[in-house]
Amino acid sequence: MSDSDLIKLYSKQILGLASQIPHLQPLCAPDGEAKVRAPLCGSTVSASVILEDGKVSQYSQNVKACALGQASAAILGKSVIGLSRADLQSGRDQLSAMLKATGPNPSAPFEAYEVLSPAREYKNRHASILLAFDAALAAIDAVDAA
Q1: What is the 3-state secondary structure (H, E, C) of the chain?
Q2: Cβ(74)–Cβ(60) under 8 Å?
Q3: Other CB atoms closer than 10 Å to residue 38's CB: what's the count?
Q4: Cα–Cα distance between 46 and 75 in angstroms, integer?
Q5: What confidence tens digit (pLDDT) does each residue in 40-88 have?
Q6: What span, in angstroms and rounded, lies between the C-alpha atoms of 74 and 59?
Q7: pTM for this prediction
Q8: Backbone phi, then psi, for 43, in 5-degree steps?
Q9: pLDDT (tens digit per residue) in 83-131
Q10: Would you tell me how many other CB atoms lie within 10 Å of the CB of residue 86?
């Protein structure tokens, strides 16, 4: 990866998001928890949820990822409250299509993921970017499994 590629990929906006991840405080009694890992890079995201009427009412995340994974967690964290599992799955599917199939940018409330569109060219970064969604979905699935 050349210096200009790195500059394009790690824009000031992405680095700014990476430093502003919400919902970092642990939940006292979550309904569901999950920890997921991207095997290629070793990034991890843990998520905890409390659900009310099938929607996320409280959320916590612990993010150990590259700046792209951190930026993704920040974007998700800003919109996760009030969303259902179906909403989150739709957002993940849209993000994956944007990254892997050169699909359109995700729609509201996930339109901020457009900032990560330069990562399309870097397949080795896709798993880290999707990790926040994967952890949130797995935490919700843990509620259903309990």
Answers
A1: CCHHHHHHHCCHHHHHHHCCCCCCCCCCCCCEEEEEECCCCCCEEEEEEEEECCEEEEEEEEEECCHHHHHHHHHHHHHCCCCEHHHHHHHHHHHHHHHHCCCCCCCCCCHHHHHHHHHHHCHHHHHHHHHHHHHHHHHHHHHHHC
A2: no
A3: 21
A4: 15
A5: 888 999 999 999 999 999 999 999 998 899 999 999 999 999 999 999 9
A6: 12
A7: 0.91
A8: -60, 145
A9: 999 999 999 999 999 999 788 999 999 999 999 988 888 888 899 999 9
A10: 9
Can you give the length of the chain in residues?
146
Match 């995201």 to its residue by tokens: 45
- Return the structure tokens found at 82: 């009030």
CA–CA dist 143, 146 (Å, integer): 5
CA distance 47 to 144: 15
Q: In whole angstroms, give the CA distance from residue 82 to residue 19.
A: 23
